[in-house]
Task: inverse folding
């Protein structure tokens, strides 16, 4: 089911994000939003988390992210406009929801240089990615950069929040272009490690990331962006320490420092190949003072401020 976006609201001392975001029904006659830098899509789903035996609540993530993002100021390096296309609400019909999300993301990606998808559990990433692929010329090389404590390469009889990147890598034969940063070694089995190796994925665990200098991290990222026609950036908020991001399906005991995650996001946004960003696993039911929602919103704002559109 598609749920239309509501008007964004907030303080009138702008400009703030709520001043620049229009919903589809606010577009003028014949205006399809083309030329607007950012399209926003929500995926209000926690069915994949439930199937993966996690704690539900991520279906409320898109609304919480909008609320947190709407109050952030738009500065000189921020976008001047965005269009919100509302939410896909799949309920238990996750497979149908993926198809609907793919269609909506594809439409957004044809209109806007950058599409931001608000999750939802990490099952969001599969539908998002399929939509981006559908909007690109056939044969485009698409990389995936996943900032995550988990590989999300599980074998399962049905899609879950633990399967999206195995689905993507197999369906599009892109395992060598899958990069996952922030893996928590004790929270991933040897089977998952072996799957990543068999696919040819590039992996850096949380402890390995902590040893890299900012210059080394950026050099590594640039080496992964080379040769890509488009990049899908997926940010799972459970990669952050639980003190920073308590409102997630699976809080991290250690995690990756927020400063490092922000650096990765900004570098990806400035790469000139980023076309899709999703922010997932926000679970407002377990958040504290909106802390996790605010972090997710800040990462979106960081990406939009650093963004360099493809040529």
Result:
């Amino acid at each position: 089911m598609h749920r239309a976006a509501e008007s964004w609201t907030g303080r009138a001392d702008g400009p703030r994000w709520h001043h620049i975001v229009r919903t589809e029904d606010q577009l003028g006659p014949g205006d399809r939003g083309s030329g607007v830098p950012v399209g926003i899509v929500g995926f209000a789903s926690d069915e994949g988390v439930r199937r993966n035996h996690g704690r539900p609540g991520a279906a409320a993530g898109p609304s919480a992210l909008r609320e947190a993002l709407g109050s952030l100021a738009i500065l000189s390096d921020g976008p001047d406009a965005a269009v919100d296309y509302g939410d896909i609400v799949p309920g238990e019909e996750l497979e149908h929801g993926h198809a609907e999300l793919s269609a909506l993301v594809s439409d957004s990606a044809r209109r806007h240089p950058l599409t931001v998808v608000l999750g939802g559990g990490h099952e969001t990433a599969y539908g998002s990615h399929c939509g981006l692929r559908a909007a690109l010329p056939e044969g485009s090389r698409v990389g995936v950069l996943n900032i995550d404590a988990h590989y999300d390469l599980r074998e399962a009889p049905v899609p879950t929040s633990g399967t999206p990147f195995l689905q993507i890598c197999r369906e599009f034969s892109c395992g060598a272009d899958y990069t996952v940063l922030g893996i928590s070694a004790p929270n991933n089995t040897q089977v998952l490690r072996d799957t990543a190796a068999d696919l040819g994925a590039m992996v850096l665990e949380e402890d390995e990331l902590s040893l890299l200098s900012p210059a080394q991290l950026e050099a590594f990222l640039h080496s992964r962006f080379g040769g890509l026609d488009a990049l899908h950036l997926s940010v799972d908020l459970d990669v952050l320490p639980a003190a920073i991001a308590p409102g997630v399906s699976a809080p991290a005991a250690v995690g990756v420092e927020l400063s490092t995650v922000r650096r990765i996001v900004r570098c990806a946004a400035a790469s000139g190949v980023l076309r899709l960003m999703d922010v997932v696993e926000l679970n407002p039911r377990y958040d504290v003072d909106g802390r996790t929602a605010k972090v997710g919103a800040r990462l979106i704002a960081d990406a939009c401020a650093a963004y360099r559109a493809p040529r």
